[in-house]
Amino acid sequence: MNNDFIKILAFEVRDDEKCFFEEAAKRLHLETVLRPDILTVENTAECQGFTGVTTLGMSRLSREVLDGLKQAGVKYISTRTVGYNHIDVAYAQSIGLHVSNAEYAPESVAEFTIMLMLLVLRKYKPAVYRQNVNDYSLGGLCGRTLKSLTVGVVGTGQIGQAVIRSLSGFSCRILAYNRSPRRELEPYASFVSLEQLYSESDVITFHLPLKETTRYMVNPHTLSLMKDGVVLINTARGELMDQKALIQGIESEKIGALALDVFEDERSIYHESRINDIIANRDMAYLRQFPNVAMTQHMAFYTESAVEEMVECGLRGIVEMHRNGCWAKELTAFTL
Ligand code: COI
């Protein structure tokens, strides 16, 4: 089918995405306009004349923004991300806007998760600090092997599954929690209740979408159910964890180590250089200074293959919604 009449305005386009946009637009016969800024209420009027818009995760598609898109005549929205907590999908659908998300190979996030796990278990952060100042001492840097530990994986969607499969190579005991246990993972992991996972795991990694039911699922109460010295990993969404509880947990040594690729309120901070900015986020600055807290700038997804797939999904999502006129599915994911 010829898609010449489909015009797509792409927001939040990074330089490394451009070649993939050009290649996919040519192949799908689309007209695309690429811009680096986020989609806001102020620039929705500029979407006039476009069939669809695509964004990444920094734009907040609130009711006001969605109303603006509707008024501008936009019909389709695609997010080039797996998560879509930045979009009021229910409202979008109630005003007749179709929304799709992306799906990319889960290994990008899964491998980064394993890396963070190893990095905090082997005290890489303080070791690197010492190297930089010619301190070659070993005191305080003794680590633990994964093989000797129980790792809990909360959420066994695509990413959780990939984490479990990779972890199985380290011969650790793996506990998993999911609303519906997955039989195909039984050779690698034991499905248990969340309470059992919390009470028996030395390391816990979270792979759940952000929803009202998962917001702050790590809080003072759930932390109290965990082992003393528990290691927590978050490569999903910052809001899964109550930051005040994390700070309290690190200070009291209830939490033995923490690795966060994501952070609540990261939207106004991450993915740009803020080197000359005054960053008004005390929790972030405070947590970052602990030797047993490793933080990265929401980059677990960031591999060459994932970037290509995200762009492809962003454009194909709009084409598919346009072709099928579908809004039967609440939100459609496309597998490459
Ligand atoms: C996702 O795909 O959900 C991510 O977290 C990636 C990021 C660019 C928002």
How many strand elements?
12
Main CATH class of the largest domain? Alpha Beta
* Biggest β-sheet strands, sense, barrel: 7 strands, parallel
Q: State the fourth-level CATH superfamily of the largest domain.
A: NAD(P)-binding Rossmann-like Domain
What is the mean predicted local confidence, pLDDT?
Answer: 94
Weakly predicted, low-confidence segments: 332-336
Helix content: 25-40%
- Give the SSE order as H and E letters: EHEEHEHEHHEHEEHEHEHEHEH
Strand order of the largest sheet: 8-7-6-9-10-11-12
Oligomer: single chain
Could you say how many structural domains there are in total?
2
Counting DSSP H or I runs of 4 or more residues, the number of helices is 11
| CATH fold label of the largest domain | Rossmann fold
Gyration radius (Cα, Å) is 21 Å
Query: Ligands in the structure?
Result: 2-OXO-4-methylpentanoic acid
CATH architecture of the largest domain: 3-Layer(aba) Sandwich
CA(first)-CA(last) distance: 19 Å
Q: Please state roughly what percent of the residues sit in beta strands, choosing from under 5%, 5-15%, 15-25%, 25-35%, 35-45% or over 45%.
A: 5-15%
- Overall, the morphology is globular
- Structural classification: alpha/beta
Entry summary:
The chain has 336 residues and is an alpha/beta fold. The chain has helices spanning 15-28, 63-72, 89-94, 107-121, 124-132, 158-168, 194-200, 220-225, 243-251, 282-288, 304-324, and strands at residues 7-10, 31-34, 52-55, 76-79, 98-100, 150-154, 173-177, 190-191, 203-206, 230-234, 255-260, 293-295.
